[in-house]
Amino acid sequence: MSTGRDHSSLPADSLDQIADDLQRLRIAAGEVSYSELASRIAHRREENGVNPAAARVARSTVFDIFRTGRSRINAELVAEIVIALGRDDREAEAWRTRCLAVRVTAKAQTPNAPLNPTPNSDSRLAFVVVLMVAAVGLNLFGGSVVSKFELPIFLDMIGTAVVAIVLGPWQGALVGLSTNVVGVFSTVPATLAYAIVNVVGALVWGYGARLWHLDKTRLRFLLLNVLVALACTITAVPITVLVFGGVAGHAGDDFIATLRAIGDGLWASVFTVNISISLADKLITGYAALAIIHLLGRLGLSEISRRDGPALNTRR
Fold it and tell me: Which band of pLDDT confidence, cut at 50, 70 and 90, is reported for residue 170?
């Protein structure tokens, strides 16, 4: 079906014009959401024999194709989007050709610029180092706020979550471990004993997003944070009981003492308090991390990370 002007036949004058025309095509198709487009593209790739993991495309990657002010564009992805919007292969090929023509024109205008510039390894390394250092600082800041105001929460894993989801689980684990090691000197020495908790949280966030795709919808992302909370509690409770005897120097100690006073056992008291605090903490942490990740994407920094941030479907 064709509606109005055939924008794929317009002159290949600029990437902004392509983005505008593609947006009009999306609106004409019923304002298909970017998440739905990503899902359709992945499904079509799988039908063509592509491995499900390799077929997946992030919502933010699709969204960026429609954004003006770009300096480059993925012609193949544009063609896939056109097909996902209900157009045929012939029209998709016309869009792809148009994108390539714009790239050739841009090359002619700036002879020294590559046709498809990609961030070099130095840029990537700088991004990784800066992000990881900033993440450790964010964790320490959150922990210091909790310590100063004696809040019944943790807030020491926001940076861990960001790095685990953006860069990978083991990078997140390194941030978590570094946080607790540095925390010995900046906050509470006892924090070192809980380094494994930060590491476990990073692994669940990272693998949850990458292997189980728990960042794909609102419900899945909520479940991911609940799983992190449970994993952290299971890891932390034995440390609190066996190493600190149930008193770890946290605001939650008062709640543990209250439960014990009314007859609950030490293990049950520590678990009840920890899981309650951890659930609230990991939900706050997870969604704070999500906001930061989307901010990175808007700043264009997702292009030099391994992934484009969570493909969270905000429509569900």
Answer: very high
Residue 256 confidence (pLDDT):
93
Residue 313 phi, psi (nearest 5): -85, 100
| 313, β-bridge pairs | 217
Q: Could you give the domains of the chain? A: 7-109 (no CATH), 121-304 (1.10.1760.20)
Q: Find all residues with CB under 8 Å of 4, minimum gap 6, and list them.
A: 28
Closest CA to 280 of 231, 207, 225: 225
Q: What's the Rg (C-alpha) of the chain?
A: 24
Q: Are 176 and 205 in contact (CB under 8 A)?
A: no
Partnered with residue 217 across adjacent β-strands are: 313
Please write down the long-range contacts of 100-108, taking CB distance under 8 Å and 24 or more positions apart: 100/75, 101/12, 102/12, 102/13, 102/14, 102/15, 102/18, 102/73, 103/72, 103/73, 103/75, 105/12, 106/15
**pTM confidence score:** 0.64
Supply the pLDDT for residue 248.
84
